[in-house]
Inverse folding.
């Protein structure tokens, strides 16, 4: 065999092997799902789930659990916001609010939603903070989102308790607070034109936003929030408003 042919064979062999998933990851990791696994999602998340489950994981932060609905989280958000207002002077409440404001300030320039394509997930998470800043979103709503998700999870016996789920669930809530880009203009041919672009709420950008919020609220959760969380979870449950 010529040197060249040997090289080519070697190259093909490496290619074939790389294309074969290792035995462990051949099937989706979700129990009872026998579909073949993919190595990752289009958002760059490394997952070992099938297409359906990796898509679910990308959007919801859990391969199994759906997202909490606005209706399910509503009572918790309301209870937490009232608590944050009543404790506005508490040093740990102030610390969390300051940290969210720092995220706003450090986010860099505001970008229109249609300019996000091709940016890294981290850059898109910064853009999300800049949108919240521009929309003058009350930083307490961001703090409340984290605590509300903590409470919903605490009250839910079927919850996915991994921190990734918490991060993604909170990020989805916060992502929704800053709406997309909306433009309207007159065009010579078609008359009035409209453009509505919403940033995609899935993938690694949500993990970045979520861990930013987790860090911002860490001291508050550690020092004062726990008794409040327990009390408010009971409060919401007593009224039959907790997630089922
Ligand atoms: Zn699957």
């Amino acid at each position: 065999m010529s040197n060249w042919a040997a090289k080519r064979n070697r190259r093909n062999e490496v290619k074939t092997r790389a294309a074969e998933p290792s035995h462990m990851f051949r099937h989706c990791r979700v129990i009872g799902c026998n579909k073949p696994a993919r190595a990752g999602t289009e958002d760059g998340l490394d997952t070992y789930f099938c297409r359906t489950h990796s898509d679910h994981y990308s959007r919801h932060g859990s391969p199994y659990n759906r997202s909490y609905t606005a209706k399910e989280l509503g009572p918790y958000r309301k209870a937490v916001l009232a608590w944050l207002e009543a404790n506005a002077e508490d040093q740990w409440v102030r610390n969390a609010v300051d940290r969210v404001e720092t995220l706003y300030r450090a986010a860099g320039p505001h970008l229109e939603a249609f300019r996000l394509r091709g940016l890294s997930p981290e850059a898109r998470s910064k853009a999300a903070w800049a949108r919240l800043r521009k929309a003058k979103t009350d930083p307490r709503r961001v703090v409340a989102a984290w605590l509300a998700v903590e409470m919903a999870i605490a009250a839910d016996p079927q919850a996915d308790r991994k921190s990734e789920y918490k991060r993604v669930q909170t990020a989805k809530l916060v992502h929704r607070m800053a709406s997309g880009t909306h433009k309207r203009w007159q065009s010579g041919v078609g008359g009035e034109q409209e453009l509505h672009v919403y940033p995609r709420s899935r993938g690694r950008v949500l993990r970045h936003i979520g861990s930013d919020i987790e860090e911002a609220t860490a001291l508050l959760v550690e020092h004062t929030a726990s008794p409040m969380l327990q009390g408010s979870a009971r409060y919401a449950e007593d009224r039959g408003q907790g997630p089922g």
